[in-house]
């Protein structure tokens, strides 16, 4: 448990992940019926971009800071409104993690359950989300193991975010196992699995393993590469495997990804991908 997201908060991967995630939550809110959200790897909930960790890497400069140059774009309004709500008096100092983003968007009838394995991070997460009455933080808790037990929700509608640090060699296997168990418990849920793009062969294997899960319904692959994918080590991009993506957000995906390429490209080979892994 050595990974600390504070070093990477607000980077291009966070912007990609959270822009799409906010869109998904907002589309669920178009119906009055309540919904449930489960977040398997909560982190600490929000991050100080002027803190020691973020200042050492300055990854936010290639993410949220650059994106703000396009702050008037209609597709960014919901996402940036949440980020700005955390920074009323702080000039963009803080960046929200997925639990804080979700919690701030929920209505009174909606519910969020968040898991975090690291004890200290879990306590900080609990403190950061204390103001939200419809949020339950479970820490220390293994989100992979807890996922199936939390499903199906009473609300019947909802989202599951599986966003691990990918610091363990068997992380993709753990994702497949957790997703398989979740699908058996709640086949109609919307599952978003975020992953880093470091090794294309490994990603292709992961996609094949996902598509082999029984009972899997329509599943989308969404990827963003701010620069060329090369043999060099490091994260060249990131993606989502999204099972049962909210219907309304599909029309927004391509324009959002085009905007990310336009605003966050690090070289002329920046690109995106939207493909059905399992067709409708």
Automatic annotation (TrEMBL):
Known EC number: 2.1.1.266
BP term (GO), one: rRNA base methylation
Swiss-Prot/TrEMBL site (Interaction with substrate rRNA) positions: 3
Any matching Pfam family: RsmJ
Keyword terms, alphabetized: Methyltransferase, RNA-binding, rRNA processing, S-adenosyl-L-methionine, Transferase
Entry annotated with the keyword S-adenosyl-L-methionine: yes
Catalytic activity: adenosine(2030) in 23S rRNA + S-adenosyl-L-methionine = N(6)-methyladenosine(2030) in 23S rRNA + S-adenosyl-L-homocysteine + H(+)
A GO cellular component entry from the record: cytosol
Binding site for S-adenosyl-L-methionine: 18, 41, 98, 116, 142-143, 163
Active site: 163
Cross-referenced SUPFAM superfamilies: S-adenosyl-L-methionine-dependent methyltransferases (SSF53335)
PANTHER family: RIBOSOMAL RNA LARGE SUBUNIT METHYLTRANSFERASE J
HAMAP family: 23SrRNA_methyltr_J
Oligomer status and interactors: Monomer.
Functional summary from the UniProt entry: Specifically methylates the adenine in position 2030 of 23S rRNA.
Family: Belongs to the RlmJ family.
UniProt-recorded name of the protein: Ribosomal RNA large subunit methyltransferase J
